[in-house]
Structure formats: C-alpha cells, structure tokens
Predict the structure.
Amino acid sequence: MNGLHALPAGELAAAIREGRTTATAACEHYLARVAALNPAVNAYLTVLPEEALAAAQAADEALARGWPPGPLHGVPIAVKDLVAVRGLPARAGSALRADDPPATEDATALARLRAAGAVLLGTLNMDEFAAGFTTENSHYGPCRNPWDRQRVAGGSSGGSAAAVAAGMAAATLGSDTNGSIRVPAALCGVVGLKPTYGRVSRAGVVPFSWSLDHIGPITRTVADAALLFSILAGPDPRDPSALPDPVADVLATLEAGPGGLRVGVLRRQCVAPCFPEVVAAFDAAVARLSRHLAVEEVEAPDLESARPASAVITWVEGSGYHRRDVQARPERFDPITRNRFRAAALLPAAAYAQAQRVRAVVRQRLGEAFRRVDALLTPTTPFAAPLLVETSEVLELNGVRGPARGLLGFATQPFSFAGLPALSVPIGLAPGGLPVGLQVVGPALGEATVLRLGRCLEMLGIGGALPSPLL
Amino acid sequence: MRVPEGQALEALVRALADWHGVACPEEEFPQLVQAFRALMGAVGALDDLPIPPEVEPAAAYRPVPPEARP
C-alpha cells in the first residue's frame, strides 16, 4: 500500500487487521520517512529502527497466529523525550540526564499504547525539561515546522506535533503543563488533546510541574485523539494524582453531531487580544458552527489571574524538582532555564500559596461558566508559528507584555491551570499559509463533549488536520 | 509586595541566591535579576485579588472536586 503515512492511526490499524497491509510494511514505510525527513525537521531525538522492526514483525506473527489484535495493532507511534522508554534514559530533552541509567520500565502511558499494539519508533524533540513553547532546544537543535522550516514547531511537545504533521509517526504522545500539547498541535496543523488533570497517568514521565502536568495524544484526526484517549485514560496506582473515576466512553458519542450543544466564546479575554488573522479564522469557524448549535459570548471573572499564577506554580515546582542539579550542575542546563529555576527558588513561599488559592478561584469561575454552556471556544494560539529568529521579539497582548515565545501560551495556560480538558483542532490557514488552531475547552471530565465538538468541526468541514507540504 | 529597583534589587537577589545556594557566575547575574523581576511581577499581579479567606490552596490539588463530577 502506498501512502500509509497519510492514513489516520485508527484506519492504519484497520488496514493491518484486515490484511490490506502489514505492521512490518507500515514500520518500514515510517522508518524510511523518518530517515528522509528528520534531518530537515529534527523532530526525533532517538530512532529505534531495530526495536521497532522487531516489534512490528512480532505483531504480524501474532496476527497470523490468530492473536486478537489491539486497537493500535502494528501502528507506528513515537513519544516525547520525557516519557520513560524501557532501555533508554528519560532525558527530557536535556543534556543533564543524557547519561542517566536506562529506564527499567515504560511509563504507564507508553505501556498502555504498547499493550494496544502500538509499535514505538523513537523519542521526540522538546524544550529542555518541557520549559518552553517553541522547542528551541539548545542541546539537540530546534525542531522545525513542517509548514515552513524557518519557523518554530511550537512546544514544548514540538517534535510530537511535527512528527505527525510530516508523516513521521501515525500518532504521538506529548505533555502539557501550560499548553505544550495544544500550542504545537495548532502551529503544525494537527489535533492535540490535553485531558482533565489526572485522567491520564503521569507515572514514568519526567515532571516539569507536578500539579500542572498532563499527558495526552497528538494525532491527525479527532477520531484518533479519541481512540488514543480511550486507551490511555484510567486509574493508575503508580500515579498518586490519577483519578479513580470511571472513564467516559468517548468513542460512543464521537459522531453524535452538534445537536443540543451550547458553546461559549471568551471573546474579550481570549479572542480579541489575538492577531487579526487568527481572529478572522476563528470568527469564520464560529460563524459556521453557529448555524448548527447555540453560541453565546461569555466571561470568566478573574481568568486574567490564571497566567501569572500558573507561572508562579510552574517555575516554583520545577525549581523544587531540579533544585539539587541547579545547585550542583548548573552548567548542564540551558542558560535561560537554569536562571528561571534559580529565580523561582528565591520567591516567597506565600506567593506559591497565593497562586494555588487563585487556582481554586479560577476553577470555580470556570465551573460557573460551564453551568451555562457545554464548552468554551478560543483560538489556540494568539498568532501563527513565528520565525525561529522572531521568538525573542517583545509583543503585547491585552496588557500582557513579553517575548513572542512566552505569549504562545496566552490562551492555553488558563485551562491547564484549571485542569480542564482542552482540544486543539486546525481550522485553516492564515494568509501566510500557516495553520491556525481552535481550542475547545470542556468541564472537568468532559472529554466526551470536547472530542464530540472537535469531531463536529471535522464533520461540518469547518476544521480538521491540514496536509503539510511534507505529508 | 514591594519589589525594589536598581542596586537594591540586585543586592536582594544576590543575598537570596547566596542564602538558597543558587548563586550564579557574575556574567549570568543580569539574567537572574531579570528572571526574578519577571516572576515577582507575576507574584505582584496576584497580590490584590479579593480572594475570600475561606478559599484554601488545598482545593487546587483536588483536580475534580466532587461537585464538578458529571
């Protein structure tokens, strides 16, 4: 079969199950694409060709023996470099941990994907220790955007998004502390899901900020995001933050359509501050959506406090995790990261407590908004992918002033702060030919609604993954 | 929370960094001061919020409060 890389993960699994292709053929096809494209994109930090081919051959042999295939049987995937892979050091895009002993077991999220039949191709580029929105990795080089290799792929899961956008993996895992799944998904024109905090186990994942880290899939379609979520989600005794609640059957409601849904637009707080080309794409998508469901403008009081509070929590927790290394081996960190960790170590403890109190307030305010609507809509990023040389340019959005690289998380940060499920779906290209993403945010444990709405965007022709020039 | 400026800020950062064992080489010190000022800006933005006294930080660690469960 030609064009295997253009098939969504679920469809590729079906093709393998039905004998239209094999896991080995899919693996060889993807490995050839990685060999050809990765030097230009730098999405992969580690490629595991021998292990991947052995796993693919084992998958084919199991199928031939009548072994019941899993939902991802034979599907080539890859994971962000902070996900523990048995036999590799979990270096999290750092030089500091490159010489660590190899992990003795897979992270729970990877183990669940492998149990579903997925074949691991390798690990993916990221900002060092997930501390950034651009994947400008000073140790291993920047990840480049498949739409324009002079531009950032977004971050910190930049490799995860770029690999899917360039057809170098059928699906990937990313992590999201302030927007690190949704931002790169939007900039690379693919789908990214950040589940409810605690819904997907973080066991075996190098932390950035314990109380803000989420694990989730980056895929080509919303159906693939739902499929991977259904495999990944659930309780895990290895992760104390993992939720005990039963997992909603997101696949059962995925095709339910827009009927009866009410959505809110956070216009003043999250839409108006964005660049005009992003606002235009967002408004056009919402106008089309409003023909099929009820749309109203909403406000979430105190939402503006989410960004500074999230910054305080993120850097204080990250600083706490890396404290010994910042003291003993600071030269092994990226200079920007180490000085932020140092600075966070100097903050008054009361500031951290205050930031967590703000978090409780913001969560309550958003909960009030969800009494009126089923989901909230915003642009995912305030502007499309900046040039690599532009990321330090100082911009101002709604009174928030800072380098472009930090402002990429302007619209995503409040919702990871609140721990709510959020999905980014591409809604077209800005005039410069760069993808724009729309973010769908749901109430806690509302993944079924978020994915259903994302699928509506695809079904109605309003959104969906865009074929990058490299696909 | 009042953050000093100029030399007073630099002296504060130097003293705190020494105290916490994260002092940096002199050539990186301006970056540390800049990072500290940025984070204190975030801290300052939270100072004046009228948060009711009964709001506990611990609530933030309950990712899905019982009342939010569908």
Summary: Chain A is about 40% helix and 15% strand. Chain A touches chain B through 51 residues (CB under 8 Å). The mean pLDDT of chain A is 96. Residues 355 and 390 of chain A are 31 Å apart (CA to CA).
